[in-house]
Amino acid sequence: MEQKECIFCKIVQGQIPCFKIYEDEKVLAFADINPITKGHILIIPKVHAESIWEIPEEYLTAISHAAKKIAQAVKKVLDPVGIAFLQLNGRGVGQVVMHYHMHLIPRGSDEPELPVSQWELKPGDKDEIKRIADKIASCL
Fold first, then answer.
1. Which of 40, 48, 99, 101 is catalytic?
2. CATH code, domain carrying 109
3. Does the pLDDT of residue 80 top 80, yes or no?
4. What does the alpha-carbon distance between residue 107 and residue 122 come to, in Å, rounded to a whole number?
């Protein structure tokens, strides 16, 4: 299931070094080497899965559990004013490494607003919102 050219698979296999923060049988967490803020962390599954559509549920659950533990440690160490959990799926929304990963991005009080967490609220067309919501709900 691992991809030979996937940088995150190479990190999991120890072929590329990382600044490891947490590891268990299903996940690996390490410091992002291109951080948005101090303490920016990536959490990845130890199996290759490109996105939310491919990741096995037990790995998705393990990532969520690890994110909670790591966020607690980030709070103790950095005392951020908040932390963003960001996860992108597909090139169309900016996913660059095609291996499922979650970003933990703490924001310190001395750092600028996170662009990923700020947007203008605009009222939507309620009929269209309902129509789409009903279609999605009917598939579940």
1. 101
2. 3.30.428.10
3. yes
4. 25
What's the chain's length in residues? 140
Single-letter residue type at 122 = K
Give the count of domains, the chain. Answer: 1
Q: Residues with Cβ < 8 Å from 97, sequence gap 6 or more?
A: 6, 7, 8
Q: 15-50 b/e with 16+ CB inside 10 Å = b?
A: eeebeebeeeebbbbbebeeebbbbbbbbbbbbbbb
Instruction: Name the nearest CA neighbour of 99 among 12, 17, 35.
Output: 12
Residue 2 lies in a domain: no
The string of pLDDT tens digits covering residues 81-104 is 999 999 999 999 999 999 999 999
Q: Is 103 a catalytic residue?
A: no
Question: Which tokens sit at 12?
Answer: 């999991």
The parent domain of residue 17 ranges over: 7-138
pLDDT tens digits for range 58-69: 999 999 999 999
Tell me how far the alpha carbon of residue 46 is from its chain's centroid: 14
Q: Is residue 1 part of a domain?
A: no
* C-alpha span between 128 and 88 (Å, rounded): 24
Contacts of 73 (CB under 8 A, 6+ apart): 21
